[in-house]
Every structure is written in C-alpha cells, then in structure tokens.
Amino acid sequence: MVAEFKTAVATCAIYAAMVLVFTAISLYTAPQGSQTGTFRPVATIPYHELLLVLLGIGLGLVASVFLWGRNWAFVFLMPLLVVLTDLDHLPSYFNWTQPIRPAHSLIFIILTVALIAMVIRRRDVEFVSLSAFFAHLSIDTGVFPPFSPVDFTYYNLNEFRIPFLVAAVAFALGAGYVGRRSRGKVD
Predict the structure, then answer these.
(1) DSSP E strand boundaries for the chain
(2) From CA 98, how far away is CA 69, in angstroms rounded?
(3) pLDDT for 35-44, tens place per residue?
(4) Do 64 and 78 touch, CB atoms closer than 8 A?
(5) 187 assigned to some structural domain
(6) N or C: which end of the chain has fewer CB within 10 A?
(7) How far is CA 150 from CA 9, 109, 145, in A?
C-alpha cells in the first residue's frame, strides 16, 4: 500500500510540473491578443473545486471498484490530478495577463501521459491521468485552447462537456481493468 501512495505522489509531482511548464511556455508563446486570462471570482472557487474533487473521488472509486478491491491510491490520486489541472491559473493569481487555460490542452495531456509512462511505467496510472484530465474539462465552462502552446485558438468547452465526461468514465474503467489485469485477476 505504501508503494501505491509513493506512485500517486510521484504522479502528482509529474502532472503538476507539466502544468507549470505548459503555463510558463504559454506565457511566452501565446500571441498578445490571447493573453486575457483572469482569475475566476474568488467566491466561485470553493464550489468549483468541490465539484472537481467530488468528481475525482467518484472516478477514483469507479476505477477502484472495477479493480475488484479498494485501491485507495486511485481514490487519492484521481481528485488531486483533477484539481491540479487548475494550476495553470497561477499567473492570473499574481495579476499577470496570461492565455486562458494553457494546460487544458490535448498536447499537454499527451505529453504528460507520455512522461508518466516513461517514469512511472504503470498503464493504470496513465489511464487515471487521462480520466482526471477529461473529468476536469467536463466540469469547466467557458473557452479553452485545445492545442496550446502551439495554437491559441479558443473553443467553447460547453460543447464538449458530455463527451469529456464519457471519456473520463471510460478511462477510469480502463484504469481499473488494466490494474486488475496487471494483478492477475483477469484472464
């Protein structure tokens, strides 16, 4: 069990570092016109983060139950990753103009999962990371740049919320299935 939590902490560290790297790169590569991000009104933050945490816990439980056992590391890891995606709002906290949601990008998640695959080497953790990312996007509203830091064309998240939620659940189930297979519980 201790090894599971060490893996979860290492995964969170990689994920958070990648969010910050993408945010920093985006501060320099985004065209001036796209650097309009602002910090959401303070009164809305607790509610938004609560929704993110609850969805993360739910998906962690889905992955854990599908694993045929309680994997508390998934229940711990999933909500943390869901929330860590919002670290890309950090510059606006310091009143710096920035592009909107630079780490809410498909390029971000592809590179992050590739790094997790190289360092952690656990397919179930890769699926958890994917699930957490899409869970986060399914809760967010407004616009996001799906190809930052290469392109800062913004698209409305609301159009994709249901497909993102379906992807989050599918990846959570995939995490449980892959974890179960790796432990020899499935043929």
Answers:
(1) 143-144, 155-156
(2) 43
(3) 676 666 667 6
(4) no
(5) no
(6) C
(7) 29, 14, 9
Domain extent at residue 35: 2-182
Asked if the structure places residue 157 within a domain, the reply is: yes
Number of domains in the chain: 1
Convert the pLDDT of each residue in 151-164 to its tens digit: 999 999 999 999 99
CB distance 128 to 78 below 8 Å:
yes
Go through 108-125 and write b for each residue having 16 or more CB atoms within 10 A of its CB, e for each that does not. Answer: bbeebbeebeeebebbbb
**Residue 143: beta bridge partners?**
156
In one-letter notation, the amino acid at residue 172 is: A
> Are the CB atoms for 155 and 146 separated by under 8 Å?
yes
Q: Report the C-alpha gap between 114 and 69 in whole angstroms.
A: 27
**Terminal Cα-to-Cα distance of the chain (whole angstroms):** 24
- Indicate the pTM of the whole model: 0.91
pLDDT (0 to 100) of residue 3: 83
Tokens of 154: 């913004």
Alpha-carbon torsion 61, 67, 68, 72, what sign?
A: negative
